[in-house]
Amino acid sequence: MLEENALNIYTDGSSYQHPRSGGMGILYIYVDDLGNETKIEYPVSGYKGATNNQMELNACIVALKNIPEFEIGTRYKKIVIFTDSQYVVKNHTTALYSWQKMKWLKSSGAPVLNAELWKELNKQILKCKKHIEIRKVKGHSKDANNKTVDKLAKFSAKNAFNKPLSIKIIRRKITTEKTVVGCVGMNGQRIIIRIIESEYLKEQRIDRYRYEVMSKSSIYFGMADFLCTKEQLKAGHIYSVRFNKNNNNPSVIKVFKEILNII
Asked: Can you give the chain as a three-state secondary structure string?
């Protein structure tokens, strides 16, 4: 339901895998004194290499940043953002009141992903100096406004002219299993892994890696998962390592050696 005494904003994020690109959809809606609705679509270019969660977040950021452009922000004391992203709805208050104080680390010690975007969203929320509410709307519903931003987001993703929001080094997987977060148990085991993807998390000063298990004797052989560590590993290289014992913050605690060939 739209609020007559608030600036209503519908946002959406979208992403494609081949090649990886992401886009955003933004729609401003306000109701005048006569009860008439005014809708303003805000088309934006997408980003190369972006994930869906990054675009859901960035759509909120861009929407708040550009309110002054339409000279409609001063009319209202309240802003309501409608999004179908559970990721944004579930975490935005935690990002504002907890994660920032904990230097973008979760209680488990694991780094908060997309910390730079969460940090920027916090900045824009505080900068608005208005009451901002973020509400969940059902994705792919009969809501006409949600359908509008969904189309805008997909068009944006197909026109990804902006540079990636984060730099990743990626190599082709060798194993056939799909990457599943949390599929590899952290039991303090020594194991052989191959790095598929590396990304430096600037806010936490730590590297995040996607890897595949190469130890044929392991019950996790062929599986692909993520971990974070301060150990320096390279994409496409194979290592004998020891995992920690924290499934909520998977990490490499020791690198024994790099393996040049696996027969």
From this structure: CCCCCCEEEEEEEEEEECCEEEEEEEEEEEECCCCCEEEEECCCCCEECCCHHHHHHHHHHHHHHCHHHHCCHHHCCEEEEEECCHHHHHHHHHHHHHHCCCCCECCCCCECCCHHHHHHHHHHHHHHCCEEEEEECCCCCCCHHHHHHHHHHHHHHHCCCECCCCCEEECCCCCCCCECCCCCCCCCCEEEEEEEEEEEECCCCEEEEEEEECCCCCCCCCCEEEEEECCCCCCCCEEEEEECCCCCCCCEEEEEEEECCCC
